Inverse folding.
């Protein structure tokens, strides 16, 4: 995996931002509500063919760019800024890393890199129907259900974690073998679903994946933190732009100290969240022993602070921010949902306390 410099990551951020702004519709309720229900084939084809985002973490030998979690976090910030409704986080980051690091997923990596295969990760069991795996001849069958599955309606394959004989296994299941039950959540731009398996045939990826599944949970927290940071950054940008142009009492509202303080608070949220997320991403790439701690720090912070930034945007916008037509509510909805995805702030504070106490 090549090591990128800060300058190269800034160039990556700029290139991805420019590209997404050129190919993706302007941010509005009209263009984003329901956009995550199905794949936008034209946009996904351009993202795959022109800038190669689906292959970001795939090895060069399989048609990818062989970059790391640090670079993926940069891209996740940018996809969140435009409320990108295509499966970059779920497929191109988490599922791809799961398949790549399983040790037996090489046959799927080139398809993931090209964007022709979309996969998503299933980690959370339905407590009433935990997933079980049964060996049938040379194949496996899965029964049970997984909760909180991102982009389930877009996926062609599901990477499923299963407790098996004292180990944790990862198995790959085709989408036509499962039943997808979308939730009615507050995020109107991304589908989250319950996925049910009824004697679904599956392929096992490698042997005992207990450590990898734990790592994937931490990586999910890092990825969600990166998206939360991107949402906060977009909220700050929109707030500052509005404060510079909205005139009250004969002057821009941005000239009033109270509004300046709100914008400064948003900048503090963005920069601190970016720093915490970058540290966690760097741990994932270079210091895996520190990942559990740094991921918990990042997610505990961003889950609490970044939704606040979207709330401050609505406060600065005033009545305009409460309308359906303005996209501010979409940023808030995505932020509130991400705040509890892969664990909320309380979960990660408790985890952090346990990790530090055990040292």
């Amino acid at each position: 995996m090549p090591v990128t410099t800060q300058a190269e990551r800034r160039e990556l951020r700029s290139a991805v931002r420019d590209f997404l702004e050129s190919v993706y519709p302007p941010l509005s309720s009209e263009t984003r509500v329901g956009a995550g229900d199905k794949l936008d084939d034209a946009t996904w084809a351009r993202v795959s063919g022109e800038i190669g985002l689906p292959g970001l973490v795939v090895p060069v030998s399989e048609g990818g760019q062989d970059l790391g979690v640090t670079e993926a976090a940069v891209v996740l910030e940018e996809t969140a800024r435009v409320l990108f409704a295509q499966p970059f986080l779920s497929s191109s980051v988490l599922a791809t890393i799961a398949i790549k690091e399983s040790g037996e997923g090489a046959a799927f990596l080139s398809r993931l890199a090209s964007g022709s295969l979309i996969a998503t990760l299933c980690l959370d069991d339905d407590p009433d129907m935990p997933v079980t795996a049964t060996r049938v001849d040379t194949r496996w069958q899965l029964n049970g259900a997984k909760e909180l599955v991102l982009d389930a309606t877009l996926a062609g394959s599901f990477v499923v974690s299963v407790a098996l004989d004292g180990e944790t296994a990862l198995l790959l299941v085709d989408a036509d073998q499962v039943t997808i039950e979308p939730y009615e959540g507050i995020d109107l731009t991304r589908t989250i679903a319950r996925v049910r398996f009824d004697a679904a045939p599956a392929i096992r990826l490698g042997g005992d994946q207990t450590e990898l599944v734990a790592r994937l949970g931490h990586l999910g927290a890092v990825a969600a933190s990166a998206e939360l940071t991107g949402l906060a950054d977009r909220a700050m940008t929109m707030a500052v732009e509005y404060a510079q142009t909205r005139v009250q009492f004969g002057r821009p509202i941005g000239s009033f100290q109270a509004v300046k303080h709100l914008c400064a608070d948003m900048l503090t949220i963005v920069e601190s969240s970016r720093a915490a997320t970058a540290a966690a991403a760097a741990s994932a790439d270079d210091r895996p022993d520190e990942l559990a701690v740094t991921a918990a720090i990042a997610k505990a912070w961003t889950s609490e602070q970044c939704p606040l930034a979207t709330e401050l945007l609505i406060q600065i916008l005033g009545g305009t921010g409460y309308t359906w037509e303005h996209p501010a509510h979409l940023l808030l909805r995505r932020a509130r949902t991400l705040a509890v995805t892969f664990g909320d702030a309380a979960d990660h504070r408790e985890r952090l306390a346990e990790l530090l106490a055990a040292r």
In short: Residues 259 and 304 are 21 Å apart (CA to CA). Residues 211-357 form a domain with the Butyryl-CoA Dehydrogenase, subunit A; domain 3 fold (CATH 1.20.140.10). The chain has three domains: 6-118, 120-209, 211-357. Residues 210-245 form the longest helix (36 residues).
